[in-house]
Amino acid sequence: MKYLSKINSPEDLRRIEIKNLPRLADEIREFLVESVSKTGGHLASNLGVVELTIALHYCLNTPHDKIVWDVGHQAYVHKILTGRRDRFDTLRKLDGLSGFPKPSESKYDTFCVGHSSTSVSAAVGMAAARDLNNENNRVVAVIGDGSFTGGMVYEALNNAGKMKTKLLIVLNDNGMSIAKNVGSVSSYLTKLRTAKAYNDAKSDVKNVFSKVPVLGDAASSVISVSKQSLKKAIVPGEFFEGLGVMYYGPIDGNNVKELIRTINKIKDINKPVLLHIITKKGKGYLPAEKHPDKFHGVGKFDVKTGEVLKKQPKETYGEVFSKTLIRLGATKKNICAITAAMPDSTGVASFKRFYPERTFDVGIAEQHAVTFAAGLASSGFIPVFAVYSTFLQRSYDQLLHDVCLQNLHVIFAVDRAGIVGEDGETHQGVFDISFLSEMPNMTVLAPCNKKELADMLTFAVKDCKGPVAIRYPKGAVSEVLGGVNEEIVLGMPQKVYKGEKAAIVSYGAMMDNAIEAYGILIREGISPALYNGRFAAPIADEFITELQQYDCIFTVEDNIKSGGFGEQLVEKLLEKSIFGKKIYNLAFPKKFIEAGSREELFKRYSLDGESIAEFVKDKLNNGTA
Predict the structure, then answer these.
(1) CA dist list (Å): 358 to 196, 230, 338, 346, 485
(2) Burial class (CB within 10 angstroms; exposed 0-12, middle 13-18, buried 19+) of 209
(3) Which among 434, 468, 422, 450 has a CA at the least distance from the CA of 558?
(4) Distance (Å, rounded) from C-alpha 31 to C-alpha 547?
(5) What positions carry a catalytic annotation?
(6) What would the pLDDT profile of 316-328 be if each residue is shown by its tens digit?
(7) Residue whose C-alpha is closest to residue 456's, from 351, 464, 409
(8) Among 113, 243, 275, 362, which is disulfide-ready with 161 (CB 3.0 to 4.6 Å)?
(9) Is pLDDT at 215 greater than 60 in this prediction?
(10) Which residues of 533-546 are buried (b: 16+ CB within 10 A; e: fewer)?
């Protein structure tokens, strides 16, 4: 590593001669592939932005100048160049480097981000703050073409064009989000990719007229008309410039010398400028170039073959969801599946193979997806929106106003609920019970095993009328309880084991840990009842009446405590004037949960089986229960 080993800050980078930067890019790619093969992470997107990241730090005076990354999963190169190379073996590990920009981690990380379509809005705000403070720093937003399906981008562009402030927006166009991009925005950008002739031709026109003697206003008018006519003839629309944002490009985003020339040319223009660059996702590592979707987010892998080392689980919750939805789709012809740019990871792609006309990929546009689903439901269809818990947060108002208010039969398959692990604070799905359960008309369920997920989806389709959310975790299905479950009855839990004086009520995926805790307690002579909670909303009055027989109740969930399943249960007890019970809600604290494996985080927050058993035993033996 002739050059990379010498870089511990952007200042070190700027000492390297431009002619040697392509070699540095090769070294960074080699380092990235080797490092991510050991830690897992987002590889393909980072391989694609090596030259761009080098060029930005080379041309800008960071951290005085600010770079705002959209989504943030492509910021590994940025981290490598800003003094964090030596800690890269801790990437996405407990107490290690975050897989996303994190201001508390480095002064070079200007904005905490993990969701898409946010960078332009944040950058416009930073530019406004700069102007108000009479400062002179530059602000750059880096955003991918996949993020351009998010509505916030257009709100931000509209605002930027109105403000007319100095701002550079880099559109990193690789034709991908996680899967291949879809929709008219993608088609528009595809046309722009072929419009390089516009900028070349515009320069030619300028050169021709520059050689003509000054002829006054007439000549100026001719030049202006010629340029506008040329633009309309060659560029498919003038969308960005119509918003007041100067468009420049497209240029080769994997050519570091061209990037540096261009950025230096436009970085101080006193108005919003959009630089359109074309990059190759996965560039420099053949397996990632061939399969950029596979290497978007990847586990540990063999560098030579590109094969993932950790075997995939035999069956995941997403696969169970997909199989069940396909089966239901055969008899219920009004079922539709919706995804927001994640067809493969959510299981919607499999449904599409059977029912393509009833499958919709709306791109990265969760807010639109929810209201789009509401529109389908209002016309007699049963839309099923499969979405990660962390991304469903983005459509809170649409859930409340467009679905729940009208009591529309929309089903939300809330994947990656609870702890997702290594992606950390921005992706942990520990808030969905809290915000979904508070919404009028919303039914909120969580399965404890694979059979129960299939049963719950069937129940949601056939037996429910209003909005339904079914939350389930990432990864392999659980076989806890042997896959045998009682019939699902609205609002009622399943009694797993009878007991005396105390009851443990576990919600959803926490049943594995609750069963472990129950076994420990039984071996130590303590015999509480054990329930599978199933419903966070509604909770049936019959169950509340049943709980009166216990002096002490322990609830267990993988959500924050505030507004979670346990607090929903407490509220129901108070509504029924059931007092004098000692109730302990075991859940995550009201905070953003850091990166780490599920097992590590359950242990850290005393939600593993041993910790649950110890807590119950302590309360019962010490008389505090």
Answers:
(1) 37, 42, 9, 16, 31
(2) middle
(3) 434
(4) 57
(5) 281, 366, 394
(6) 999 999 999 999 9
(7) 464
(8) 243
(9) no
(10) bbbbbbbbeebbeb
